[in-house]
Amino acid sequence: MNVLRVTGGTPLFGEVDVPGSKNAALALLSSVVLGSGQTILTNVPDVSDIHIKLRLLEQFGVRFSWHEGTLFIDTDNLEGWEADEERVRPIRTSFYLLGPLLARLGRIKLPAPGGCKIGARPVDLHLKGLQQMGARIELDSGVYMAEVDRFRGANIVLEVPSAGATQHLMSTATLADGVTVITNASIEPEVVTLAEYLIRLGARIEGAGTTTISIMGVNELGGGEFRVPADRLQAGTYLLAGAITRGSVTARGILPEHQAAVGSKLLEAGADVEVGPDWVRVSANKRLDAVKIKTMPYPGFPTDMQQPMTALLATANGTSFVEETIYESRSGHVSQLNRMGGSLDQKGNATLIEGVETLQGAYVEASDLRAGAALVLAGLAAEGETVVGNVHYIDRGYDDLEARLVSLGATIERTSDQESGTVLSG
Ligand code: UD1
Asked: What is the distance between the alpha carbons of residues 55 and 392, in angstroms, rounded to a whole number?
């Protein structure tokens, strides 16, 4: 098992070219099976969730090769209809293949999904929508058995604007008979990216990025080339790294509007935020002030930035309040920040944070992807050495985090826990 050893206390300065978006790429890889022919995806992030997804696709006859961020994917010869549990379980977006594979193969057997343990994460909206479009789905001992003759258009009203359900149903509907309208659709940027990609393959979609999306079904989709946009969540993490270390970090190659919610909270806390056509710079030369955060669907404060922001607020001046409204238990970082000398009190999905002057290096464990990012940020600001365990969570969504942080002046290295002499039960 690897750990990240972070020596804190150095302000970070410099620029980061932000890698492709994990969440966007995962959504594209769920939909790639809808088309036949060759698809080329560029700027694909090298993170473990992508590798897991590719291994699952391979099981259904998808062939691929990967050269320096470019994925060449061939979906001409889809085959099989069952997936192994161990290929499905590790990531939640395995499930988003159900509709697209059904549309192509007519039947499929897919174990229930996994992913980061941050709450119940039901798939009821996905199931209801697919059923409305004509799928017959049964759950038998944790495995979904599904069949369809041909999907048909439907009027689907989502109870909550789920990003995953919107993506899953929108992509499946591209091959349905007739028109599908999704109401109360998610307007997260990754939904828009997916729609742009599907349109490139020949789909007819209107309204992506608004709360009502119309999909006019077509008989088939082809291949095409598409660039995965920069990852707004990795970008936000690097900007917070600049702020928490009282340095100045520029995230490049991004859409600045995606950082608006994080940027405005950093401004409110006393940081400087500059914005260019495809970059955002955050600078801080003093201890930042406490702020209130409430996570909301886009364009509100992103739930994925809640944990990294909490790390920053652990050292802010005053009392901050953080409310998580999207997930039940995105709070595994709280106890670990307290191990580092933080003063955080969590009740339900709210965290009260009394900012401390400095955190102290400690052995801490990531409980999920963004908790891992939060602990690395805390380590960068802390006195002494922080050892972050469960690095595999961080590897799910950060493409070479250490190298990028080192390029900004951080001292951080990956070692095995034996080498570091760490007590893992810590
Ligand atoms: C995606 C992102 C995740 C991000 C989240 C919200 C990926 C791989 N993950 O997750 O990083 O935090 O969007 O921006 O892209 N819900 C239901 N029933 C359903 C589906 C969802 O009740 O069938 C609820 C969830 O429990 C949650 C809320 O809807 O409370 C939002 O979840 P959703 O938008 O679906 O998130 P994901 O797509 O899983």
From this structure: 17
